[in-house]
Design a protein that fits this description.
The protein has 7 helices and no strands. The protein has 176 residues and is mostly helical. It has one domain (9-160): Up-down Bundle (Four Helix Bundle (Hemerythrin (Met), subunit A)).
Length: 176
């Protein structure tokens, strides 16, 4: 796997994490059936479809921060970590995988092209934390952190659903 060069040095930690999450996305969902993906443990956990949809929504969010006009087709279900609502119909896992495969290369290109000025643009996200500058760069960092969290949650669900833990195989054909 080659390392592409970003315009901004500020993304040197973000881009490898983004690419590793693309690998992990494939690996963590491997072997999870549509039926398994809708199971909740003791009616307390979110299901894998909800977790996956939120992860895909993070990709759209990053893209939008960087100027992409693409809209998550399932935004009404997942925007800003919307809570699971069992009265709603959720998309299939395959549909979410297709959304991920569509948006991720576009976001990756935008990450490579982002300038320091673009990343430093103020972006209020309402944290109110004195130690976090609310700008595009830090919002991207928050999204990457959310992806980490969701991949970990799906990894735990794999075990609870009786599957093996996530593999860390690298698929060199994934270029984003």
């Amino acid at each position: 796997m080659t390392m592409d060069t970003a315009t901004s040095k500020k993304l040197e930690i973000i881009i490898p994490a983004f690419r590793m999450h693309s690998q992990s996305f494939k690996n963590v969902l491997d072997g999870i059936s549509d039926e398994m993906a809708l199971k909740r443990i003791d009616n307390k956990t979110n299901h894998v479809v909800w977790m996956t949809g939120n992860l895909v929504n993070c990709r759209y969010w990053i893209g939008n921060l960087l100027g992409l006009d693409d809209t998550d087709p399932n935004e009404n279900l997942f925007k800003e970590g919307r809570a699971l609502d069992e009265s709603l119909e959720y998309p299939s896992l395959d549909g979410l995988k297709m959304n991920f495969a569509d948006i991720s290369p576009k976001v990756y290109q935008k990450l490579l092209q982002a300038t320091d000025q673009q990343l430093d643009t103020p972006f209020p996200f309402g944290m109110g934390a004195s130690f976090i500058k609310e700008n595009v760069l830090n919002m991207i960092g928050m999204c990457i952190g959310r992806e980490d969290y969701l991949i970990g949650q799906i990894g735990l669900m794999r075990k609870l659903l009786g599957l093996q833990g996530m593999r860390y195989d690298i698929d060199e054909s994934i270029r984003f």
